[in-house]
């Protein structure tokens, strides 16, 4: 659900139609759940999948084949401006009238095949090697209208990945092991985009291929029977892609979103104490990214609205620590806790879009008549510094019936984030925490489980995205927020039965 978070005085749709009449009975704010639209929206999902694996036992090896197939379909219709105002009249100087909606069908299909040969036995050397292939196809149509003269396009994109990989582990001593892995990846992407706007019909198609090799080296040592420390270095790769969205053009065909690469260092400990009643895992990490792929907001020259596009951040660094604890003080009670502290900083991103209304004093400057800013040294968007999870699970018998009960309570907290890569201060979400609870009952045969649950017990409201619609409402910072399902308290019953 998308609602108004803040509407300053003087906001006018396209700078023409005052927004006030559309807000009668609506109070913008963090807890706003009311919205007025031109047409009821909808979202429909349908997914199907198949997977299978076969293992052949050989004399000294095991040959494994894994095959998967997925088919996902999605269709939606959404109000574009979140009001019932005459946007078409304001946008076309009265040539047309009515509201504006956006949507269309989307289908994604993917099939994969992996062959893997693994060594058998418990010798000092163990290893595996394999081949992998994936083929994914996406089809999407999009219309912003309803008269279709604002955006109307069809697109098809494809991705084929072929890879060869190997990994081996060698036991140097009974307590020390070294492992190494290597993967060669060849990725081919393609796109076919047709802009169906009557004024500017055009088609673009392209194809690009990229090869990459990644690897990992790790060392493990057992300090004691149940205490292991480790260190590792790994390189990573995320392939190039075509950002298929409104405004796609020949330049995007020539310059697809570049591949993302990374170098990661990690040290940690995995341990058990008190006869396995206490488990403690700790990790410290540091990762450097080149051409980090992230969503950014771009001003569409036709609609004068900011839209989400995928872009490359020049250089990024993340580092932090993670701690996981599990404790079982008595047999029926399990306590769990995890804490993550992550510092994600943009190291180099000198020329990127300014956020709406950003001034020279706030870092926005004209370069070749284009407003740009330097984000080097800024925090990465949508990356909370702190995440905390706490949980408790209690198992109990129900008299002499043979039935068992499971009670669970868990809570999650995350610190504040900013949802705009351009660091718009209006796109902040303060830190928040939610608590969930459930009680489940199992029959003596353990094949029937009935769970009564409540999510967001204390009805804490929060947003999964905050957007500034500055250019839609006459250069006034009108904020909208996307409210996920879990931002409201809800309860229900889940029933599972195993045949």
Secondary-structure blueprint of this entry?
Blueprint: E1 2-6, E2 12-13, E3 17-18, E4 42-57, E5 61-79, H1 87-91, E6 101-119, E7 125-145, E8 151-173, E9 176-195, E10 202-224, E11 227-238, H2 250-254, E12 260-273, E13 278-299, E14 306-330, E15 333-348, E16 352-353, E17 365-367, E18 370-373, E19 386-397, E20 404-414, E21 417-418, E22 428-429, E23 432-442, E24 448-455, E25 465-468, E26 479-482, E27 490-497
Antiparallel strand pairs: 1-26, 2-3, 4-5, 5-6, 6-7, 7-8, 8-9, 9-10, 10-11, 11-12, 12-13, 13-14, 14-15, 15-19, 16-18, 17-18, 19-20, 20-23, 21-22, 23-24, 24-27, 25-26
Protein name: TonB-dependent receptor
Family: Belongs to the TonB-dependent receptor family.
Keywords: Cell outer membrane, Ion transport, Iron, Iron transport, Membrane, Receptor, TonB box, Transmembrane, Transmembrane beta strand, Transport
Overview of this protein structure:
The protein is mainly β and 499 residues long. It has a single domain (63-73, 110-497), classed as Beta Barrel (Maltoporin, Chain A), CATH 2.40.170. Helices cover 2% and strands 62% of the residues. It has two helices and 27 strands. The protein has helices spanning 87-91, 250-254, and strands at 2-6, 12-13, 17-18, 42-57, 61-79, 101-119, 125-145, 151-173, 176-195, 202-224, 227-238, 260-273, 278-299, 306-330, 333-348, 352-353, 365-367, 370-373, 386-397, 404-414, 417-418, 428-429, 432-442, 448-455, 465-468, 479-482, 490-497. The protein has a 17-stranded antiparallel β-sheet. A three-stranded antiparallel β-sheet has the order 1-26-25, with no helix packed on it. The chain has a three-stranded antiparallel β-sheet with strand order 16-18-17, with no helix packed on it. It is globular, with a radius of gyration of 27 Å. The two termini are 38 Å apart. The model has no long low-confidence stretch (mean pLDDT 91).
């Amino acid at each position: 659900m998308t609602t108004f978070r803040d509407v300053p005085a003087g906001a006018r749709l396209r700078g023409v139609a005052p927004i006030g009449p559309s807000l009668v009975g609506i109070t913008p704010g963090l807890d706003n759940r009311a919205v007025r639209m031109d047409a009821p929206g909808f979202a429909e999902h349908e997914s199907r999948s198949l997977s299978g694996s076969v293992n052949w036992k050989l004399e000294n090896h095991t040959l494994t084949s894994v095959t998967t197939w997925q088919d996902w379909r999605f269709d939606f219709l959404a109000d574009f401006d979140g009001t019932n105002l005459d946007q078409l009249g304001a946008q076309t100087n009265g040539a047309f009238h009515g509201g504006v909606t956006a949507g269309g069908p989307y289908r994604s299909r993917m099939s994969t095949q992996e062959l893997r040969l693994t060594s058998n036995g418990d010798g000092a050397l163990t290893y595996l090697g394999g081949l992998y292939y994936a083929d994914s196809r996406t089809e999407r149509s999009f219309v912003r209208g309803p008269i279709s003269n604002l955006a109307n396009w069809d697109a098809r994109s494809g991705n084929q990945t072929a890879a060869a990989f190997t990994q081996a582990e060698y036991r140097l001593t009974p307590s020390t092991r070294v492992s190494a892995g290597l993967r060669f990846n060849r990725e081919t992407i393609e796109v076919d985009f047709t802009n169906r706007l009557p004024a500017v019909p055009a088609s673009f198609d392209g194809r690009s291929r990229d090869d990459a090799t990644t690897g990992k080296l790790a060392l493990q040592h057992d300090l004691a029977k149940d205490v292991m420390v480790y260190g590792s270095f790994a390189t990573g790769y995320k392939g190039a892609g075509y950002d298929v969205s409104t405004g796609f053009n020949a330049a995007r065909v020539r310059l697809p979103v570049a591949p993302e690469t990374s170098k990661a260092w990690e040290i940690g400990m995995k341990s058990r104490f008190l006869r396995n009643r206490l488990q403690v895992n700790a990790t410290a990490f540091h990762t450097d990214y080149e051409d980090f792929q992230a969503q950014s907001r771009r001003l569409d020259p036709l609609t004068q609205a900011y839209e989400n596009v995928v872009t490359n951040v020049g250089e990024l660094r993340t580092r932090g620590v993670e701690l996981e604890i599990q404790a079982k003080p008595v047999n029926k009670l399990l306590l769990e806790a995890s804490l993550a502290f992550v510092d994600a900083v943009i190291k180099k991103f000198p020329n990127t879009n300014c956020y709406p209304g950003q001034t020279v004093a706030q870092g926005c400057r004209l370069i070749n008549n284009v407003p740009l800013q330097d984000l080097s040294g800024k925090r990465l968007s949508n990356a909370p510094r702190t995440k905390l999870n706490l949980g408790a699970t209690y198992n109990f018998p129900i008299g002499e019936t043979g039935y068992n009960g499971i009670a669970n309570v868990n809570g999650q907290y995350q610190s504040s984030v900013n949802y705009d890569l351009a660091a718009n201060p209006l796109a902040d979400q303060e830190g928040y925490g939610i608590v969930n609870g459930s009680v489940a009952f199992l029959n003596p045969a353990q094949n029937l489980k009935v769970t009564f649950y409540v999510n967001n017990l204390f009805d804490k409201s929060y947003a999964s995205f905050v957007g500034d619609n500055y250019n839609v409402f006459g250069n006034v910072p009108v904020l909208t927020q996307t409210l996920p399902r879990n931002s409201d308290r809800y309860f229900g019953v889940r029933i599972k039965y195993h045949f």
